[in-house]
């Protein structure tokens, strides 16, 4: 497949993934404005801990919030992820439980909702509707139930602006994390400018997403990131699977320094298959910046091809969204190179059908 012909790309993109990716800044703008208007009872501002329940593309926001803000400097209370059928045992009336499901039909998240009611927790949610939307409405719970007008693909992973910023807006509104309207406006403006250079009519010589997708073709990309970008690294790995139908991995620094460095020798075929991508940021902890540089050196000394991606946005949240935008476009072009429509997820659909 030739990435130089926009008409061929459009012909393959039957699910309108392109329009969804172009609309990320609009998703962010809509989600921030709407979720910031939600009215919460006063007790929602006094939780002692926060649990975000969700799966797959619907928990991108939770993972990102945790890696960005679950520190003494950035969050007033601990933030935990419930990535399955059960809430943590500590959940009680002092816990804020946020139910996150793009479609509103995620059975694990719905089960967590039932448990949250039983435990008397403070409950809110982020969803486009479905059973979760009905649950939140019937229980008269304050929540962000959005109209995904800027995600024509209807795929959760391509509606990240709603799920990520909807969640962030709720937590900011309640005073748990330090995010304001000015920062969101700046992010929207920054991403709009970045998007112009990633569109199909920009040739590969000037289009970073196309360049990287060509590198990923027939390889296994291994993304390496650190501290506040851990959630974003997870979020850009998933669409390699779902959008491009290709295997990908991610690891985080400093954790990988305690095991992965000794796993680079065998099998010999791995040296041709694995392609290491190092996400660089001037905002990392200074020790993690040194670790990243040294890790890249060790990987290269073990005869693996590497690529460094330096993020340019001015804040941690902005860099997170910068990486998600770029990663989404890379997966889109990789799907095109693989000759497939980027939107459908037939094996996930098959699994859900046979599980029901």
TrEMBL record:
Keyword Isomerase: yes
GO biological process: carbohydrate derivative metabolic process; carbohydrate metabolic process
Keywords assigned: Isomerase
Record-level Gene Ontology MF annotations: carbohydrate derivative binding; glucose-6-phosphate isomerase activity; mannose-6-phosphate isomerase activity
Family, per entry: Belongs to the PGI/PMI family.
Domain SIS: 40-181
Protein name: SIS domain-containing protein
UniProt key word Acetylation: no
């Amino acid at each position: 497949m030739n990435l130089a012909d926009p008409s061929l790309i459009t012909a393959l993109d039957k699910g309108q993934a392109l329009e969804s990716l172009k609309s990320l800044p609009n998703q962010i703008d809509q989600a921030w404005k709407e979720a910031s208007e939600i009215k919460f009872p006063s007790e929602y501002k006094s939780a002692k801990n926060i649990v975000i329940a969700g799966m797959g593309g619907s928990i991108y926001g939770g993972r990102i919030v945790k890696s960005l803000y679950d520190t003494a400097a950035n969050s007033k209370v601990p933030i935990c992820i419930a990535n399955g059928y059960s809430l943590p045992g500590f959940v009680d009336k002092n816990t804020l439980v946020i139910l996150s499901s793009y479609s509103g039909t995620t059975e694990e998240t719905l089960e967590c909702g039932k448990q949250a009611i039983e435990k008397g927790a403070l409950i809110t949610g982020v969803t486009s509707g479905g059973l979760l939307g009905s649950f939140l409405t019937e229980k008269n719970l304050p929540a962000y139930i959005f109209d995904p007008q800027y995600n024509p693909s209807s795929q959760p992973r391509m509606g990240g602006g709603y799920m990520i910023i909807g969640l962030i807006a709720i937590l900011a509104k309640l005073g748990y994390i330090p995010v304001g309207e000015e920062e969101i406006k700046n992010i929207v403006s920054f991403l709009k400018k970045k998007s112009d250079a990633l569109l199909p009519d920009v040739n590969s010589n000037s289009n970073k997403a196309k360049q990287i997708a060509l590198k990923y073709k027939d390889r296994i990309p291994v993304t390496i990131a650190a501290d506040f970008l851990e959630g974003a690294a997870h979020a850009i790995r998933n669409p390699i699977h779902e959008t491009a139908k290709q295997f990908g991995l991610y690891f985080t620094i400093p954790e990988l320094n305690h095991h992965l460095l000794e796993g680079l020798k065998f099998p010999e075929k791995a040296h041709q298959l694995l392609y290491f991508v190092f996400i660089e940021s001037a905002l990392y902890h200074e020790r993690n910046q040194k670790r990243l540089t040294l890790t890249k050196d060790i990987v290269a000394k073990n005869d693996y091809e590497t690529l460094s991606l330096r993020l340019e946005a001015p804040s941690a949240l902005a860099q997170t969204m910068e990486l998600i935008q770029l990663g989404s476009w890379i997966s889109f072009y990789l799907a095109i190179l693989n000759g497939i429509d980027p939107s459908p997820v037939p094996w996930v659909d098959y699994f859900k059908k046979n599980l029901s």
